[in-house]
Amino acid sequence: MFAGFLEESKIIVSLLIPYLLLLGVIGAGYLGGIIFSRILRLIVKRFPFHALPVYIRYMRQPVRILVSLVVVYLVSRSAFIPDLDEEIIASVLRILFIADATWILLGILHVGEAYLKNRLHLDAADNLRARKIFTQLGILRRISAFVIVLLGTGVLLTSFDGIRQLGTTLLASAGVVGIILGVAAQKTIGLVLAGLQVALTQPIRIDDVLIVEGEWGRVEEIALTYVVVKIWDERRLVLPISYFIEKPFQNWTRSSAQLIGSVYLYADFTFNVDPLREELARILPEIAEWDGRVQVIQVTDLSERGQELRVLVSSTDAPKLWDLRCKVRERLLTYMQKNYPENLPRIRASLENRVKEGENQS
Question: 306-315 and 259-267 as β-strands: parallel, antiparallel, unpaired?
Fold first, then answer.
């Protein structure tokens, strides 16, 4: 009886040994992946840009899995595994290889985008070229990611005969379904095409200053189907990307970030503008936001109450221009209050006729 039990135990152990070896190989492969990932991490630290956080986020896990799969594949080829199990293992490894290769390609896209963005200087005063490339990189990465996932899924589905036959059957009956889906997804497809048009023609770019829907803000994100505008008070305005193809909007940084701003002041008819011009010429060099290009004061309108004075000043970008306008307005108004208070706008009433009528009655 004991001999029979021992014989059965030997048979069970002989059957389990290949699978235990396979588990050991998987563990060894994952350990090798961790070691390789650590070595690659040390290499990435020497890159000329801060790539380590991007690598850790997008590349560390797929690289570990790839090395593990390679080790498992190489060792499993020499292990004692039944033919049927070897075929199953090969199929599973093929699926994992395709999925992991797709994951690695997506990670390479992110690392490449981070590297190119690091070479650009979006915070520079003249950042037009950088904003152009930033916009194109973001949209092209999303399109490339979509194509990679689509190709990876296609390769995965065509790797097996049964699924390939199923795919052929589905394609044969996909005509009507394609028409239905095309009609249902018409707006979505239109948005994607609008996104491609924005990437190529670039009516807007990352960090552009816009006046849209009556709001002042900067372009924070451009996706395939929508655009996020960060408004000056930290709110976010989310618009479909087709909005910037179909509707008018103001782009203050389309060809340059330099802008001219206006400040309006009002004075009595008796006010002489020349002293105010001299005061403007004196204070502008003291204001850091002024870029030295434009300084003009003109009488632009008259009304029954007085004259309208328009002050034109220039700055390197929209935020600095806003501060410049506020400072110029405050300092010129203070100058007029201090030196010409009698020339500030006021309402006058003439009582001459009433006085004469009173004198006649008396």
Answer: antiparallel
pLDDT, one tens digit per residue, over 213-263 is: 989 898 888 887 889 999 988 899 999 888 888 888 988 887 777 888 899
Determine the average pLDDT of the residues in 345-349: 68
> For residue 289, which of 261, 264, 252 has the smallest C-alpha distance?
261
Q: Residue 208: what residue type?
A: D
- Alpha-carbon span 353 to 359, nearest angstrom: 10
E-strand ranges in the chain read 209-212, 215-222, 226-231, 236-240, 250-251, 259-267, 290-303, 306-315
Kindly list the distances between the CA atom of residue 179 and the CA atoms of 47, 182, 186, 234, 281, in Å, as whole numbers in the listed order. 49, 5, 10, 43, 68
Q: Determine the Cα–Cα distance for residues 29 and 69; give it in Å rounded to an integer.
A: 7
> 286: which DSSP letter?
G
C-alpha separations of 147 from 21, 106, 109, 136, 335 in Å: 38, 10, 12, 16, 64
Q: Are the C-beta atoms of residues 318 and 253 closer than 8 Å to each other? A: yes
